[in-house]
Each structure stands twice: as structure tokens, then as C-alpha cells.
Amino acid sequence: MARISFDKVSKLYGSVTALKELSLDIENGEFLVLVGPSGCGKSTALRLLAGLEEVSAGRISIGDRTVNDVNAKDRDLAMVFQSYALYPHMSVYDNIAFGLKIRKVPKPEIAERVAEAARILGIEELLKRKPRQLSGGQRQRVALGRAIVRQPAAFLLDEPLSNLDAKLRVQTRAELAKLHERLGATFIYVTHDQVEAMTMASRIAVLNDGELQQLGTPQELYDAPANLFVAGFIGSPAMNFFGTTVTPAEGGYRIDAAAFKLDLTAAVGLDLREQAGQETVLGIRPEHIHDPAFLPPGVVPAVIETTVDVVEAMGSETFLHLAADGMPFIARVDARSQAKAGQRFGAAFDLSRIYLFDSASKLAVKRLGKPDQSDVGVATPS
Amino acid sequence: MAVADDIDRPTMGEAPGGGSRRRRLHFARIPLHVAVIGLALLWSIPTIALVVSSFRTPEEIAGSGWWNAIKTPFDWTLANYDAVLSQRGLARAFLNSIIITAPASTITILVAAFAAYAFAWMRFPGRNLLLLVLVGLLVVPLQMTLIPVLRLYVALSVDVEVPLLGGKLFGTSSYPGIWLAHGAYGLPFAVYLLRNFFGGLPRDLIEAALLDGATDMQVFFRIVLPLSMPALAALAIFDFLWTWNDLLVALVFLGDPNLAPMTLRIANLVSSFGASYQVLTAAAFVSMAVPLVVFFALQRYFVQGILAGSVKG
Fold first, then answer.
1. Chain A contacts of B208, Cβ < 8 Å?
2. pLDDT in tens, A237-283
3. Nearest residue to A207 (alpha-carbon basis) of A353, A16, A32
4. Does 3.40.50.1980 match the CATH number of domain A240-381?
5. pLDDT tens digit sequence for B44-54
6. Can you list the domains of chain B with their CATH numbers?
7. What angle do CA B206, B212, B214 make, to 5 degrees?
């Protein structure tokens, strides 16, 4: 077990930069998820740490040791591949024992450790089978077993759930989280699926175009996205965005979107002083747009006139595809909502949960503190 | 065959009427099967003629066509084989062929497998250029190299008699000399074939083994070689056949008639016993038998799906 750190690590493939000066400290026992769209550099970061690729610049260390020039086999890391990468000509037992045999661990100890790993993963009956006789979920467990048995400094997981079907994925997600707790080991997990990131991570690092966008706990990323990319990436369905301008108005600021205007008082909690007269992007998550008939407590509503395009009733909640003056967005409202496709609908924006981003820098406008619960804004039709 | 097997096999959850459709498909393929079997028979006629003739007396061979021997009463003789194996020194030639071919093929496959692994999975400067040069060697005609290599062998000759095997330690008329020559001539194709196969193994498997702590040597022996049995078996058969059937290299590099392989001895049979057609047929069949054994022994490694279950795309 050891602390892992990336210090301004870059990776270039020819003239293409896959990773740009990534600095990241991963604490012992942490479940860190690297998340981002394909090609964002997350897998590159993992492969650099594993020693499967060479670092172009910067320093990677495990514990007190700089490992830039250490071979993959000597880094004491175990990796679970997206493809599972089981050795097809070996039985499950031999697959799991391979790393121990290579390290010349005595046979009785190998047997003991393989049995223990198999017990943890519930694959004791499969030990004599060949990988081709296993289902996807079982193969995935064997791949995990191969990592667990080694008792490595850290586990690297490269999209390990992406080949499982949806139901199994949810189940395995929970099992992985449990396994992490049980082993107390450092997990570094790469995924493009923000749901996996949100549900399992103790901290998430969001990457895009080879650059670290934000590092924080799942709740921090959800509540306070640092920029437009993180805001759009974290959360499902994604945050709605509207191009707006901010102008000072009586008692606060007026946010002018093409389809509507919002009057904000200072109490909404956004520091808009520098944004006055600027192009900004207004962001609001679908779950913070409500049906006025079913307002949860604590909401600071501003009702916008819209038309309903599509109603998707999920049973537990309803997704409304709305359009305000032709501008489409999604609301996630109470399942009891009576909204019908084609009808007018007053969408209640929770002003205490809106975000503003600078159009030029894409950075989030800072919050001044917790907004109070009084009526802080009114919407006016544009 | 494989295709026909797949179609004949019943499948679960078959739609009603699927059986008759399959039967129709089966009938539709009959002309194809007839054509393929016919071609195979046609192709085999010379070999069958050779085998049948090898069991006939010189008078019969001279007097009637080989197909007459298939009719009863059978009047077959083993005299030709007796003549070949005891009287004409072909037994020793047979042994010589094995002494030449087995080590030469082993050298080719072993060296090629190591080289192919390096070209496929190890990173070193000039890798692609080296591979290009090696593959380029495929177009160099063997005949062009004979004189330079022969001169080199004469210069490097080690005149020490090797016990048991016979011949010199190195140079012309030496087994190690012809092993190296055959080994080297087979290398460009062997490396090319194996590199492509090794390179096609899933990258994740190699990387997983490296992360499990394996060295390149361990990855090679414990992962790559066991998974490459089809390619290795194919290569073994090819290379064995080439070396076994070779006449030119043996003619050039083996001056000593006592070291000569079957091919050389059979060629001499034609010239010195031009009339002994019956002995030639028996000798040719003996020469064919070993490659057939090798082929059938390695055939079971030509199985598909050896990688099944390793990675899921």
C-alpha cells in the first residue's frame, strides 16, 4: 500500500499530446476514478502508471520511489483490463496463480491465496474451468481474482464493467465498492461512465483533452463544477445550458437568455460583479427544474413558459423534454406531474441551484456562499 | 468441410421449417462436394499410381498399366522395398534425411520464434527497418547465395570427423553446415509468418503477463508459445517438407555421398538405374512417408478458437 503521485506528467505520441501536465496525488486506500470522454487521456494516465507506456515528461512516484524508469513487472501494481485478458490456455486456478508462480511464491501459499481470492469473489467452483467456459461476469471475477491474489500496492482498473450487461454492471459496481472497503487497498479506476464514477469513487478526477478539469469528491463535482465541461459531464441527464448576458438591475442582476429573463438578487449566491455586461452560460440541472404543482421544500422557483415536446414517464420520476421559445432542454419532475406533450408548461427553475459560466474562459462563476431561502428571483417573459 | 459441418449441425431454438431448409441447402451443396472430391481423386492419381507400382514386379510394370494391379488375383510383391532398404544404401539415406531435416527445421522454428516475438512485442531502435530488410530477403533467389555461402564454408571448414553422425564438424560435407544453411534459408519466411501471428495475439494478454511480473522470456514461453501452436505447427510442416524435399542445397553442400539424403539418392537412382523403375517408385514412397507422418501428427494443432475466452471485444 502506498501513496501514488503524478507530478506534471505529460505523454506525447508524435505531435499529439495525450496527457498534459497531469498532477494528482492519490492517497493510500483511496478509490480514485479517472473519468472523461474517449480520448481524454484517462487510459493513458493509467497505462503510464502501470508502466505500459513511457512518460514523456514529469514524474510518477509510488510511495517514496520514482517509477519513471521502473519496469511494469517491478511496480507492484495489478491491473484489470477491459477485455479481462485471461490466459485462454490456462485454467481459472492457473490464471489467478500466474503472478504468484512467476514470483516463485511457495506452492502451498499459492494454493492458500488462490483459495482465499476465489472465496472472496465466489468463484470457488470455477477454478478448474478454462476461460472460454465462463460467462462474462465470471471472467470479470477471475480477472479481479488475478489482481487480488497478488496483494499489490494498488489496483488499476481499466473500464472493467464496460463488457457486462446493464443489470450485471449495477450489481458488480456495488461488489467492487464492497471489495474496495474490504481490502482497504488503493483503487484507481478508469471509466467513461459518470454513473460508475459517481457511485464508487471516493474522489473523481475529470479529464478532457488530456487535461485535468477538476478533482474532488462526487458531491463536490456535482454541486460545484469548476467549469462548463465538468458541469456537462457529471450528472445524468446532463445539465441544461443557455447562452445569456448579465446586466446589473435593480437589487441585483438580470440574466437575459433569448427565451426568458431571470432577475437575480444578490441572495442567489453568485458573484456576478465581474460578469456584468458579459456573455455567460447559464446552467441548470434537469432535477432542479420542477413542476410548479409539486415543488419540493427549499426551492427558489422562477417559472418559465415552455411547450412540452416529449413526456418520458419513468414511474419514479418523469422526464420532460421542453422548449422555451424553440430552445430545448430537459426537466426531471415529480412523477405525478400532469404535463402533456404539445401543451404549455410553466417550468419552475430553482434559482438557488443555477450555475453561471464565463463564455470565454468556460470557468464557473464563483458562489458567495449558501443562498438563503427567501424569494430571490422572478422570471419575466422575454 | 468446416463449413459443411457447421450447416449440418442442429441448432437449438430452430424456427419451424428450418430442418427442410437445411436439407435443401445440403442437397444444393452436393455438386460442390462431388466436384471437390473428384478434384482430390484426380490430384491423387499419380500418387496412387506410384504406390501401386511400387508393389509390382519390373515385368508387370513393363507389361501392363498400374491399374491392372488393382484387379484380382492380387500379385503384389515387397521385393522393391527390400531392394530399396537393403541393397541400394537407401536406408542410410533415409536416416541422413532425418539427421538433416529434424535439426534444420528445429533451428529455423526456434530462431524464428524468438525473432518474431522481438519484432512483434519488444521495443528497440530500428525494429521496423530490420523487419523490412528481413522480409526483403524473401525475394532473394536461393541460387544466388549458393556460391558465396559455399566459398564461406570452404574458408571456415573445420576438418574434424564427427563420431556417430559422420561428416566434418563444419564446412562442406558436414551436417552442422547444412543445418545452418537450411535453417537460414527458411528464416525470412518463418519470421514473417510467426511475427504476423504473434502480433495478432491480444495486446492485453501480453501486458497482463508483464504486469503479473513476467519477463519477456516468461511471456514468450508461457503465453505466446502455447497460444501459437497452430502457427508453429503449420510452420513446422512447411519447413519440414521444404528441407525433406530439398535436392539443391544438399547437392551443393554435401559432397560426401555417405551423408546424402533421400532426394539425392533417388535422383542418382534415376541416372544410374534408369531401367529400375520399380525401385524408384518404392524409394519415392519411402521418402513420402515421413512428411505424411509429420503432417498427421501436427494436424490436430490446426484447431480454430484456441484464443476463445481470453478477451472479449
1. 79, 81, 85, 87, 146
2. 999 999 998 888 877 788 888 888 888 876 667 777 777 788 889 99
3. A32
4. no
5. 999 888 888 88
6. 2-7+19-80 (no CATH), 85-301 (1.10.3720.10)
7. 65
